[in-house]
Amino acid sequence: MTDAADPHFKRVALIGLGLIGGSLGHAMRRGKLAGHIAGYARSDATRKRAMEIGFVDSVHSSAADAVKDADLVILCTPVGSVGEVAAEIEPVLKKGAILTDVGSVKVAIFRDVGPHVPDGVHFIPGHPIAGTEESGPDAGFAELFDDRWCILTPLPGVDRDAVARLTAFWEACGSRVDFMEPKHHDLVLAITSHLPHLIAYNIVGTADDMETVTRSEVIKYSAGGFRDFTRLAASDPTMWRDVCLSNKDAILEMLGRFSEDLAALQRLIRWGDGDGLFELFTRTRAIRRSIIDAGQENPAPNFGRNPTHAADDKKDQ
Amino acid sequence: MTDAADPHFKRVALIGLGLIGGSLGHAMRRGKLAGHIAGYARSDATRKRAMEIGFVDSVHSSAADAVKDADLVILCTPVGSVGEVAAEIEPVLKKGAILTDVGSVKVAIFRDVGPHVPDGVHFIPGHPIAGTEESGPDAGFAELFDDRWCILTPLPGVDRDAVARLTAFWEACGSRVDFMEPKHHDLVLAITSHLPHLIAYNIVGTADDMETVTRSEVIKYSAGGFRDFTRLAASDPTMWRDVCLSNKDAILEMLGRFSEDLAALQRLIRWGDGDGLFELFTRTRAIRRSIIDAGQENPAPNFGRNPTHAADDKKDQ
Fold first, then answer.
1. Interface mutation target, options B19, B197, B213, chain A, most CBs of A under 10 Å
2. Which fold has domain A9-180?
3. Number of cross-chain residue pairs from A and B with Cβ atoms under 8 Å apart
4. Hey, which end of chain B has fewer CB within 10 Å, N or C?
């Protein structure tokens, strides 16, 4: 990898124009990273909206049309559908082009997309660790990737210059870039992203099912902590269904560990083990500080929900 | 309850000068709700700091000294210690004074404080549903209770005028006030606050224990969802130990339900039931919208972590 790699591509194809595809369009505009951005979305309304917002230069009703002549092709559809898309674009992928994706799982991407990559096309799967709970073409914005990590998982034999160019591209989109084995990526994301989403979906479901506490009470008193979980549980259902189906083994492993730990915590409560509870509640506190120090979290208390707090603090001191 | 109830008290005693005690001090200053605010904290450093910040008018090294002559006494120490404090202040509580608290459990408060309430003192336990993950005298701010609910749990026989005055006081602190049976309060809070905190502590503990994924990886890639949980898991360990020990039955009931639901979710994943997953992930989405509509959550995507987003949106449209 060389520092001199060019982050600019003549023609980029965005396959999928939702939160991530849209944010990539905005980030490419901001960094002047593409001569032409061709977009594909399944729905006519999404294509129309993407043109109105202006993060693409052209839209196409078939993925193959969008991919024609592209130097960089980025698959931004849910991971359950990338195999089908790959089969469709296989005949038109240009020799020398880079093919990448943004999916939350990587082993399944090699399995589903790999067989459709023609000789001479550089296949370098990727995953930006960034997002919000919103989806659709209006959800994207240029700063989404700023200071967030993007993990690339190239196989050992892949062209070094192509990897350097894709790295330079993500860095120009604001990201920091890391490299990982696909299998290790899936394990890391299972604990840092997939398990948190599943736990959030689960607790919101549990609260919604209560018969002794009404939904209106859950909503009114959600500031006691519950509301934090509703953000992840408002994420795109299709995306998360596909993640669960395509990273099954790692997710089941993490769910197993979580449940074991929860059973142990339940036992501490049942037996009134105050020291054991205090020990657990103390050691988890340090981790948030590390995440803030690593620049991966807003340092303001309560996620900055109390905007007047900072000003108030200053006045007091 | 009458609209004319006076929210102002001549002398208020704040027993405990941390996040909630401090915020009450600031809120009383803002609303000019107290002639004199007397503060008690166990540690000398906390008392000194509270005077420096200025949210109390006097500090005292014994709770009894702070409570002397007070018309309103607010217990703001962790729920495990309020019984002891109540025993100490029992001899000096003034006839006609209102005694309240801010604890996250209410049945245990009646059990521990109730026996120490002298005749002629109006005992009206309360619980403001507001907080941040910070603690200590520097963590408080005047706006903490604005638009948040405060639940009062007076027993049926208690003086109506006293309840009206305490209601007016909390409203003047910015809160909306609700009334509940103590037992029902503990059940509602078990699902809206206690379970979420325990789940957050548990998942952060699970991630911290991984041997195949390093702590540094967990921190770097936490923006995938994990970081959301670290906020609740950074809350005060003493407070949460006490909550677990004093609301055991309701918490164990909620943990049991959550675990059952998690087992069902695990089964959907193991058997690849995409429709079942999609159904769960869809119905949880609506709840966040309701919480935002109820004014209990920041409507900005990603908790407003991307401050430039709104500006960017406007530019695009």
1. B213
2. Rossmann fold (3.40.50)
3. 393
4. C
CB contact under 8 A, A188 and B213: yes
Residue spans of the domains in chain B: they are 9-180, 185-297
CATH 1.10.3660.10 fits A185-272, yes or no: yes
C-alpha angle with apex B10: B4 to B16, nearest 5 degrees? Answer: 110
CATH of B185-297, one of 1.10.3660.10, 1.10.340.30, 1.10.287.370, 3.90.1200.10: 1.10.3660.10
Cβ contact, residue pair B188, A282, below 8 Å: no
CB of B202 within 8 Å of any CB in chain A? yes
Q: B261 CB contacts (<8 Å, ≥6 apart)?
A: A202, A205, A206, A209
Contact A206 B261 (CB under 8 A): yes
Terminus-to-terminus CA distance in chain A, angstroms?
A: 49
Give residues with Cβ within 8 angstroms of A168, minimum separation 6. A5, A6, A7
Going by pLDDT thresholds of 50, 70 and 90, the confidence category of residue B211 is: confident
Residues of A in contact with B238 (CB under 8 A): 278
| C-alpha span between B37 and B16 (Å, rounded) | 12
pTM of the model: 0.93
The per-residue pLDDT for range A261-303, each reduced to its tens digit, is 999 999 999 999 999 999 999 999 889 999 999 999 989 999 9
